[in-house]
Design brief:
Largest sheet: 6 strands, mixed
Order of helices and strands: EEHEHEHEHEHEHEHEHHEHH
Number of helices: 11
Structural class: alpha/beta
Length: 314
Amino acid sequence: MTNHFDASPIHKMTENLNNNTFYIKRDDLIPISFGGNKARKAVLFFEDLIKGKFDSIVTYGSSSSNHCRIIANIAAGKGIPCHIISPSGSNQSTANSKLVELFGSFVTLCPVSEVRITIERKLDELKIQGYNPYFIQGGGHGDIGTQAYVNAYQEILGYENSSGIHFDYIFHTSGTGTTQAGLVCGKLLNDDDREIVGISNARKNPYGRQVILDSINSYLMNLNNRQIATEKVKFIDDYILEGYGSYNNKVLQTIKEVLVHDGIPLDTSYTGKAFWGMKEYIKKNNITDKKILFIHTGGTPLFFDKLEDLKNEQ
């Protein structure tokens, strides 16, 4: 399985809310296990794993996790044992969990309060068995995950330079935080003037914003760059509804409209929820006549989990 890919494409969309022009960066088309931001990050994690001569993986995520599906897929392709620690409280069957099973990963369920100790035990167990395990934080959190979206920001600059288009806003789903951290670091390192807005799919402020800020400053510190303050991070928690995985009829309607008019699948947990949240944010803040880029961070298998709900949406 190849781990390298060209820049993901950017397409103009039919959406024109408030006379804005919308574009979408299709990270879901990264040619690794249905793509997405977790695929972009996974490439760098596996480069680090191979360089360090590790021979097994331990990571964390729910049954809906795009991260776990992609790590499991690449690990299977490389013949590397993959162990996933997953919270038992959110153990519903999803397309992603079925794929993880297909890839032969070893899933250990535990209460969310015992995740840390369960990870530590699994790492110790593998070491006793003679393995050299590589740990990846849930969602691909950490400086390597941040670097992946510094790279993506460079792709955006490349598109702007070649097309003559400048994006005034970049919107995306914000979860564990390194996608937004990487985009903000890319903006800072290039001294750009634009808004990067993360639409939270679950976390609330101040915690959600602080996690992203910590990721930004960790990355900048390693480059000996000046750190930033909290107000520089636009992490919007107005559209999380009832939390992770929750959605409403407006999210379903948004997904249906984007699929019908642009042929692009979004999902209820991440991208569809964020696209709806972006539109609500634009209306609330009266953003008009701007060029707006939405980053499609993946989750295509999850689209099919809610297909019946979409069919029933009027």
